[in-house]
UniProtKB/TrEMBL annotation:
Record keywords: Amino-acid biosynthesis, Aromatic amino acid biosynthesis, Lyase, Phenylalanine biosynthesis
InterPro entries named among the record's database cross-references: ACT-like_dom_sf (IPR045865), ACT_dom (IPR002912), Chor_mutase/pphenate_deHydtase (IPR008242), Preph_deHydtase (IPR001086), Preph_deHydtase_CS (IPR018528)
EC number: 4.2.1.51
Gene expressing this chain: pheA
EC primary class: lyase
Residue span, Prephenate dehydratase domain: 4-179
Keyword Hydrolase: no
Name recorded for this polypeptide: prephenate dehydratase
Length: 280
């Protein structure tokens, strides 16, 4: 049986594109929700899950930070995917025939200048791939979709305008999740470690907890906080750092972190994507 990789969304979604670009040999398994994609891996229906965590334009993906610590899965990789937006239409239709374009509200906002320039009305759809499917099924020549080239390929639509996004560097970062961690992996472009923690209830606890990374020269690329358990006082922090826990400097920094926190959970240790520093 072909190994499968689960993602949230329909065939042709940008998450599907991430699966195809990163693991072209695996069969992509579309799932209705992020929870379904996680369950597919946990229950053995798929080997991996491809989950978006943040976008360079719109920030973090809602709910993901809450789902990761409770998922029972481990991060084993990351993938940076450039989000190129295309105008897709029925075969043979010209750009000047298009009156409206359907897509997810975020993509509609990303192509505002192009759509206004061509007098194209924006129509909100549930998601990008679903909008492409709707245009293909509706058969209305004046309606187009904003989606990936992959969606056009899947639903039989032509690309009549390519890469029309207002910001050409729009990039989404995905995390690759598996049932078992892989601490033995080493990457040519370095390693990343992702963890969550809660600080102890002492003055300046967060400041002191972060001090170990600075004094040991460990680069922290992300630090975000979010509430847990519906409480304003229970705050959990999500962090990405460069390096492997076996690196002496990282080990020392994590030891200091442990002293000032009530718990630390490593979500994954994985090779850095080579595109991590190439998103400008």
């Amino acid at each position: 049986m072909t190994d499968r990789i689960a993602f949230q969304g329909e065939l042709g979604a940008y998450s599907h594109q991430a699966c195809r670009e990163t693991y072209p040999e695996m069969e992509a398994l579309p799932c209705r929700t992020f929870e379904d994609a996680i369950s597919a891996v946990r229950e053995g229906q798929a080997e991996l899950a491809m989950l978006p965590v943040e976008n360079s334009t719109f920030g973090r993906v809602a709910d993901i930070h809450h789902l990761l610590p409770e998922s029972g899965l481990h991060i084993v990789g990351e993938a940076f995917v450039r989000v190129h937006i295309n105008l897709l239409a029925l075969p043979g239709i010209r750009l000047d025939e298009i009156e409206s374009a359907m897509s997810h509200t975020m993509l509609l906002g990303q192509c505002r200048a192009f759509l206004e320039r061509h007098g194209i009305h924006r129509v909100t759809g549930a998601d990008t791939a679903g909008s492409a499917r709707h245009v293909a099924e509706a058969g209305q020549p004046e309606m187009a979709a904003l989606a990936s080239e992959l969606a056009g390929e899947i639903y039989g639509l032509d690309v009549i305008a390519r890469h029309i996004e207002d910001q050409g560097n729009n990039t989404t970062r995905f995390l690759v999740m598996a049932r078992e961690p892989d601490f033995a992996a080493r990457g040519e472009n370095g390693m990343m470690t992702t963890f969550v923690f809660q600080v102890r209830n002492i003055p300046a606890a967060l400041y002191k907890a972060m001090g170990g990374f600075a004094t040991n020269g460990v680069n922290m690329t992300k630090l975000e906080s979010y509430m847990v358990g519906g409480s304003f006082t229970a705050t959990q922090f999500y962090a990405d750092i460069e390096g492997h826990p076996d690196d002496p400097a990282v080990a020392r920094a994590l030891d200091e972190l442990d002293y000032f926190t009530s718990n630390v959970t490593i979500l994954g240790v994985y090779p850095a994507d080579p595109r991590r520093h190439d998103t400008d």
